[in-house]
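Researcher: I'd like a structural prediction for the single chain below. Treat it as a standalone chain; there are no partners to consider.
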Amino acid sequence: MASFVTYFFLPDSKGDRPVVHWVAHEIPVSKANVEVFYRWLEKNDYPEIEIKFDTQAKSTDPLKTIVQGVSGVANDILECYVGRVSLFQSIGLLNDLTEVAKEMGFEATMTYPGIQSALSVDGRQYAFPRNVASGFLWVNVDAFDRVGMSIPPDVWTIDEFEKIGREFVERSNQTGERQTVFFQKDLVIQERLVMVRSNGVDFFNETLTQSNLLHPEYTENYETIYRWIHDLHIVPTAAQSKELVTSTGEGLGFVSIHLFANGSYGLMRGGRWGFMFFREIGFKNLSVSEPPHDGFRNAGFNFGAPAIYEGSAEKEAAYYFMKFLASEDYNMEIVRNSDGLPPLPRYAYTEEFLRPPDHPSEWGLHERIRRIAEEIAIVRSESPFILLDTITRIEKNAFDKFVAGRASAQEALSDCAERIKKEMERNAGKSSKLALRFEKGLRDQQEIERLRKAGELVPLKLISNPFYRRYYVEKGWSSPDGSEIEK
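Model: Treating it as a single chain, here is the predicted structure.
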């Protein structure tokens, strides 16, 4: 009886209005977006729907979502980032949106080409972005002005990055005193990947059946970053980063934003969402540069993409939220609040996007951010034979071990490559379907290598890796339409 009374008085059980629970950050922008959703429903005479946040199941940590999902009690809308769609789909948590997306107008083909593959699995759509983030470097113009240096160019090479970085830290720190200013905070796996990709090497091969960690470019990349940290001091050690955070003396949620704004770093990786925080603290003197390259310009690509839990009892209501993400009302709200790039690229061409009326100091920057997304950004490659989270963990352990001096670059990468190889083979053997797919990938890889050796064009249908699909076309090794015409 007590249980019945408790259930009866729960807010979700009252009235006819469906309540949709969403795993999301409970921040002002998220709340504002929901208010826009309510107005959009009313304007279009759609059914009344209530959105409630679940901030306990952290959207950046999939573990609680997985536990809830397999137990049958997950939230109606799940938050996905790169790698999450394939992870959640692999254990049956996601509702197939392919047909309803066509009917209601939120197909994956409507968003940026560079992320479309990460929203689907085996040609079926499972998510749609609420925002998009291309990777670039924020530049603190004041920090360069203080030491009498010009800011880095929009497009630059890895050699230029090192040269400018050396001069910046030399001018910014007093000789013989503890270093307090660095060129850039750190280089995470995504940034290391961009550097290696600029030499034509991705983490995986063309068919996603093997890692490329034993390629000489990876060894050179590790050794270059080691030199930047330990010899040139343009990137801090982990201990120096921690010391800078402690020295701020503030309990800040986004410490890196404040360290960057006060000049402890000349550069900081980021996305357009950074404007939300810069506006809040009143920091305006900014510029934007592409990630440095070594021949092939590229950048990372990420997104926040809601998906619908397969076990949800409110799928019909949740579909309206997905439709909302592709609406003008929502996209223009993202344009105004700067929480990343709008899901539909055409809204990144509006005057309000290019020249925010209340923020003239940002004019010119938004266009460059959009251009990076459309011209050079490529999503991380995902193999069906290993989870992206597993890759990130294994590679980070190898890199940290090398940077700490506990292994050479070759030793760390060899161990990492072997662990990933075993994991992929183990996963491929879990089902006959995956085993057949793995065997086909190995055959396709052999055919790709034969065609390359013979100087013939490689059909795009043989290439699964999104990086190599673009790289082969730009190098002239594949035809944009996938034809098999010989050179």
